[in-house]
């Protein structure tokens, strides 16, 4: 139908622009030179060993993982409550309440970060991993609600009623029927909030205190040219990890759909 | 003489409001133990709401719902002796057929073997023997329906509630399932309460039917009474086809009413043919299409006879519907005739004799 030529060129340029910088990451991560420039001078795994030897980096990775996992779990749990409430029950000022919960989605993050900082300092709270988790839960929750609401929405109400009718309590119905059926949504939600938290910079920068997260560490290291190849090595690992994580999530999602017999309406991949 | 069975469900002046909307307006009725009972009405008449008050999914604003003599106020759905077959079947998609059917046995103290046997029996009862291991979402509509039935019946409820269970099926499978439901109900002897908007389905399946309009029961009777002696013009219109003609009451005593109908003359009607509820439009009489008969050459009427002209012919294979404008009437009457081998279908414009009997009609006033 299309003439093809121009569309193909457009697609090629688009994909190159999107992925070329990422392909450069492993290239320079294995390049035996401190300067990031062509031509490549030789193969080395030196940057990876150096990276693994850096205690500050290890600490940053650890902090980031703790923050990302906690934020994902807390935000998804809150998201489950909120989505369930908004899709199943009617309560006064529902629209307003849901709107306020979703607001951080569009609020400038720097404003959120600064306000949180001011409030926390005003309350005399010490900045730590906990304060970063707090901030990340705040920005992740709207995403989890967006994902989980659609999962809860597509659940036939009579499935719950059938379970009550067959003798189950509301709690056991939730466990036996609702939870398994929204599980793909929950996994998506965990994964997306994990990813958001992992690469979030502004809030982490403001609220981390003396416990930098990975993005904050990377930012601080970029001032030293000698550290750049190590960052490249780190980036390579992160990209591989993301691809792996996404693949696992997609496998779970497809398996969930096959199990419940639903139609595949698209996912991450 | 039929022996009156004890009451299984009793509604005592049940009202239900959704905000300002008055969904149930004083329902008082009882459903007998072991009967196949239908709630019939157009959408929005409150029939599903009423069914859901039995199941416990819907609270009531005032009045009482009793099941087997016990007031159900405050008894949640999972503690009621009722089970439901949902319109969407509500088969749990992540479980197998077996797990679906056995779902309600989770809290049953019986051993695993006994439960497995019970599930197998239930599946056999609904004609799904050997389907236990299948994934529930891989079943056809008719099979889902059977799984839903087995899942509800395995708990041996006092009452089985069916919310438009056949509306999603094709005509052929629907008719087959109707007969199967009747067989199943006789077999298990459980009280069935069916909600339907399909009058034919209700007539075929039910022992008794409650016809509902706008949150009220308009008539509660067995199918034959409902069809032959509808309590109001609205009921008559909803169930089957009825020809209505304006009538004038000319004389009346304690047991009889005399009416004058254009094209039919004066008729002497007994008390059981006279119904209230013409909707405040004076009086009218109603004829079912099969109570009028077109007389072919040489046939003699059993009662009375009029002349008319055929204005429309609709051929259904086994039946032909004729619209006949009788001499002296304004509107044509619909007459249904069974087609008989060797007898031709008449053409539009044919002059014909029509036999009828005053005993077959109903007067609404």
From TrEMBL, chain A:
It is found in: Cell membrane. Pfam families: BPD_transp_1. It comes from Aliigemmobacter aestuarii. GO terms for cellular component: plasma membrane. It comes from the Bacteria. The keyword Membrane applies. This is ABC transporter permease. It is a multi-pass membrane protein. Belongs to the binding-protein-dependent transport system permease family. CysTW subfamily. The chain crosses the membrane at residues 12-30, 36-53, 65-85, 97-123, 130-152, 172-194, 201-220, 226-249. One of its GO terms (biological process) is transmembrane transport. Keywords: Cell membrane, Membrane, Transmembrane, Transmembrane helix, Transport. Residues 61-249 form the ABC transmembrane type-1 domain.
TrEMBL record, chain B:
Residues 9-239 form the ABC transporter domain. Keywords: ATP-binding, Ligase, Nucleotide-binding, Transport. SMART domains: AAA. GO terms for cellular component: ATP-binding cassette (ABC) transporter complex. One of its GO terms (biological process) is putrescine transport. Residues 165-365 form the Biotin carboxylation domain. Pfam families: ABC_tran, TOBE_2. PROSITE patterns: ABC_TRANSPORTER_1 (PS00211), ABC_TRANSPORTER_2 (PS50893), BC (PS50979). GO terms for molecular function: ATP binding; ATP hydrolysis activity; ligase activity; transmembrane transporter activity. It comes from the Bacteria. PANTHER family: SPERMIDINE/PUTRESCINE IMPORT ATP-BINDING PROTEIN POTA, SPERMIDINE_PUTRESCINE IMPORT ATP-BINDING PROTEIN POTA. This is ABC transporter ATP-binding protein. It comes from Aliigemmobacter aestuarii.
């Amino acid at each position: 139908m299309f003439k093809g030529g121009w569309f193909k060129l457009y697609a090629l340029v688009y994909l190159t622009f999107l992925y070329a910088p990422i392909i450069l990451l492993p290239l320079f991560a294995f390049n035996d030179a401190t300067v990031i420039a062509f031509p490549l001078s030789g193969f080395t795994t030196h940057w990876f060993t150096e990276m693994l030897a850096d205690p500050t980096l290890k600490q940053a990775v650890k902090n980031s993982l703790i923050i990302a996992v906690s934020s994902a779990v807390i935000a998804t749990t809150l998201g489950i409550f909120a989505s369930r409430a908004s899709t199943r029950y009617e309560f006064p000022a529902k629209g307003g309440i849901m709107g306020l919960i979703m607001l951080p989605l569009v609020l400038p993050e720097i404003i959120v970060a600064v306000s949180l900082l001011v409030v926390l300092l005003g309350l005399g709270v010490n900045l730590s991993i906990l304060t970063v988790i707090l901030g990340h839960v705040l920005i992740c929750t709207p995403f989890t609600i967006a994902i989980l609401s659609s999962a809860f929405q597509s659940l036939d109400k009579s499935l719950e009623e059938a379970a009550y009718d067959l003798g189950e309590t509301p709690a056991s119905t939730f466990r036996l029927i609702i939870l398994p059926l929204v599980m793909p949504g929950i996994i998506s939600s965990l994964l997306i909030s994990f990813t958001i938290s992992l690469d979030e910079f502004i809030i982490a920068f403001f609220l981390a205190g003396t416990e930098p997260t990975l993005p904050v560490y990377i930012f601080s290291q970029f001032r030293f040219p000698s550290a750049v190849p190590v960052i490249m090595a780190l980036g390579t690992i992160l990209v591989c990890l993301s691809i792996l994580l996404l693949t696992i999530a997609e496998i779970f999602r497809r398996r969930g759909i096959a199990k419940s017999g639903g139609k595949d309406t698209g996912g991450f991949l | 003489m039929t022996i009156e069975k004890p009451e299984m469900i009793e509604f005592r002046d049940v009202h239900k409001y959704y905000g300002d909307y008055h969904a149930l307006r004083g329902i008082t009725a009882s459903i007998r133990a072991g009967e196949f009972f239908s709630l019939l009405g157009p959408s929005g008449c409150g029939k599903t709401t009423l069914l859901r008050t039995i199941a416990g999914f819907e609270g009531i604003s005032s009045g009482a719902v009793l099941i087997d003599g016990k007031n159900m106020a405050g008894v949640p759905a999972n503690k009621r002796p009722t089970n439901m077959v949902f319109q969407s079947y509500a088969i749990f998609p992540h479980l197998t057929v077996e797990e679906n059917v056995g779902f309600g046995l989770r809290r049953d103290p019986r051993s695993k073997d006994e439960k497995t046997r019970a599930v197998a029996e239930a599946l056999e009862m609904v004609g799904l023997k050997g389907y236990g291991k299948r994934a529930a979402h891989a079943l056809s509509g008719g099979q889902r329906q059977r799984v839903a039935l087995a899942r509800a019946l395995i708990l041996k409820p006092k009452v089985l509630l069916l919310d438009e269970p056949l509306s999603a099926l094709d005509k052929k499978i629907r008719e087959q399932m109707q007969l199967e439901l009747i067989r199943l109900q006789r077999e298990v002897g459980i009280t069935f309460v069916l909600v339907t908007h399909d009058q034919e389905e209700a007539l075929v399946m039910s022992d008794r039917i409650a016809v509902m309009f706008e949150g009220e029961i308009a008539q509660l009777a067995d199918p034959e009474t409902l069809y032959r002696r509808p309590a109001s013009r609205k009921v008559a219109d909803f169930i089957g086809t009825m020809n209505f003609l304006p009538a004038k009451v000319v004389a009346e005593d304690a047991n009889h009413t005399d009416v004058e109908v254009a094209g039919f003359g004066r008729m002497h009607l007994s008390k059981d043919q006279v119904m209230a509820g013409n909707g405040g439009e004076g009086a009218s009489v109603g004829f079912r299409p099969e109570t009028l008969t077109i007389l072919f050459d040489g046939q003699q009427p059993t009662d009375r006879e009029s002349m008319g002209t055929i204005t429309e012919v609709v051929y259904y294979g086994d039946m032909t519907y004729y619209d006949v404008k009788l001499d002296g009437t304004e509107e044509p009457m619909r007459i249904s005739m069974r087609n008989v081998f060797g007898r031709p279908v008449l053409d539009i414009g044919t002059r014909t004799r029509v036999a009828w009997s005053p005993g077959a009609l109903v007067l609404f006033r």
